Amino acid sequence: MNNLLLLPILIPLFTAVILIFLNRFTVASRWVSVLSLLSTVFVSVLLFQKVRTDGIQTLNLGNWEAPFGITLVSDMLSALLVLTTSVIAFACCLYSFRAIGEEREKFYYYSILQFLIVGINGAFTTGDIFNLFVFFEVMLMSSYVLLVLGGTKAQLRESVKYILVNIISSSLFVITVAYLYSVVGTLNMAHISTRIAEVGQPGILTVIAVLFLIVFGLKGAIFPLYFWLPGSYYAPPAPVLALFGALLTKVGVYSIMRTYTLFFPHDPGYTHELLGVLAVITIIVGIIGALAYWDIKKIIIYNIIVAVGVILFGVSVNTTESLTGAIFYLIHDMLIKAALFLLVGVVIAITGTSNLKKISGLIKNYPLLGWMFLLSALALAGIPPLSGFVGKLLIIKSGFEAEAYWGAGIVLMSSLLVLFSVMKIFINGFWGIHRTYEKEEKAPVSWLLISPAILVIISVLYGVGAELVYPYILEAAETLTNPSTYINAVMKE
Amino acid sequence: MRTNDLILQTVTKVILFIILLFSIHLFFAGHYYPGGGFIGGLMTAGALVLLLLAFDMKTVANILPVNYRIMTAIGLLFSIGTGAGSLLFNVPFLTHAFNDVYLPILGKTSLHTAVLFDIGVYLVVIGVTMTIIQTIGEDE
After folding, report:
1. How many independent structural domains does chain B possess?
2. Which of A213, A275, A419, B120 has its CA 20 to 30 A from that of B57?
3. Of the partner residues A13, A17, A63, the one whose CB lies closest to the CB of residue B95
């Protein structure tokens, strides 16, 4: 029993409520919000320390014993993801001060942002499949509000699509959970895992595995189910986009990772093969999108899809090494996507457009912005020693070892094309003839650069210090490939 | 043209209190029998909606000058506070406690922290329902 692992959920929840009262006082709500996120980061670090020294932490809510009540479980993977989420939320909140506009702030922006973090941290921490659904809903409800807040025409149009897609996938989620419950008779994730291991995953459970893939695939944007993403993510302003791009799809990816290693590792010939094929097609589709557009937002948005494909390919290979790579890349991608979207937001704040053909020569007046963009672009593509490299290396290496030549080859090729797609932004947008822009004077550039700077620095350290981080990531991956440690921690056998 | 809603208004004035009382009954019954904060809150909200139907929004706002968003927040605070209270006693979140206490008029009564949690739920349900209804109503 340890209430510490609840705090990254409880602090934002409590703050969200406080912020409803503070709604009229914009300045106060800004600082309350950012301080609460800072303390969330702090408790996440403490939690990480605790998991590092004492192993997996569990908490049975309401003191109901494990398979019957709701259990929160914090293993290395979830502790790392909660920490990353809190850091990104902190950066985005700081960025929002000067980027989101008073209009939105008055409509409970900061409160909803906290609710979003409640949902995401909760989804990463929970050890109960139905509770996972509940936290998904908390996260989605908040994302609906964040998406529609501001009420521009594009936002309203995309919100309708986004809500429709997610309501369908949520109901499918409940149906799938009910299906699973009727087969194994439990909702506790560790308990489900033991029950499935006892019956050896017959056909019906493989069907459920595929249903889960559809549900989480819709949230995580894998190949046939990614169609809603480019449009919906294009609509909201930069800080919201950064939160969505860095965190929301990753919750889907995390859920696939968790269910496919904990519940369904018994028939990899079917389930993981399917996941692998879809992941590779996802990469290809994402690359095509990223190369085709001349819009900086769209290019980075399509890069989300590429990253989802790369991570899931790592999951589908399903060895300790490939999962280490996948987790390493997952955390890297969360950090660097948030940084990139925030930088894109700065570019849009300066130029007033996201059309690459109307932007050029930015590096002359904004050298810091330019270099930071270059650094994160290189990190995104996985140039050593930056953070994308280690993850991709591990994924590709384990892919070749598992004789998945095609997949690993495509991941390898995709890095080059990703590099090309972001370099296109750098070359066209930052080099070239210097131009002046109408709104240039008003853009609070130096403030806006703080948050991406924090993220880029963390990401660089994460890449350079890979040797130091590696043992923890390895531990996270070992818990995934060897579910018995997770099960023992929850069931206390 | 004004619709003649004399019957509705007269009936509402009487029925309103019956519904409210019954909703409170449901709320307290919820501890051992069917009922509870959610259904009690919904029924109270139902009574308020009836009031809105019989009269207009302005009159109701005069009778009950309540900001329902704040009400929701207070409700959430109650529920989270009850849950978080268990942190002070170093037991898992949401652990409840109860005790039999002798009260002056009521006699021996079982007091339970779950009631505090339920009051939160009750307020949140009323707050959210009324916010939704009012928002839809304002559009017309």
Report:
1. 1
2. B120
3. A63
A106 — contact with chain B (CB < 8 Å)?
Answer: no
Of residues A17, A21, A62, nearest to B92 (C-beta): A62
Classify the C-alpha dihedral A398-A400-A405-A408 as positive or negative. positive
- Domain residues for B121? 6-139
φ, ψ at B114 (rounded to 5°): -60, -25
Domain count along chain A: 1
CA atoms within 13 A on the CB side of A285: 19
B72 has a chain A CB within 8 A of its CB: yes
Q: What is the pLDDT of residues A48-66, one digit of tens each?
A: 999 999 989 999 988 888 8
Report the C-alpha gap between A250 and A120 in whole angstroms: 9
Q: Which amino acid is at A87?
A: V
Residue showing tokens 């979003």: A116
Q: pLDDT of A311-354, one tens digit each?
A: 999 999 989 999 999 999 999 999 999 999 999 999 999 988 88
The pLDDT tens digits for A75-98 are 999 999 999 999 999 999 999 998
Q: Which of residues 5-34 of A touch B (CB under 8 A)?
A: 6, 10, 13-14, 17, 20-21
Please give, one letter per residue, the 3-state secondary structure of A330-349.
Answer: HHHHHHHHHHHHHHHHHHHH
Q: Do B93 and A17 touch (CB under 8 A)?
A: no
Chain B partners of A63 at a C-beta cutoff of 8 Å? 91-92, 95
pLDDT in tens, A271-298: 999 999 999 999 999 999 999 999 999 9
Name the residue among A252, A253, A256, A265 with its Cα closest to residue A206: A265
Which SS3 state, helix, strand or coil, does residue A60 take? strand
Residue A255, domain extent: 3-491
- Higher-pLDDT residue of A3 and A181 is A181
Residue with tokens 């590092």: A52
Asked if the structure places residue B1 within a domain, the reply is no
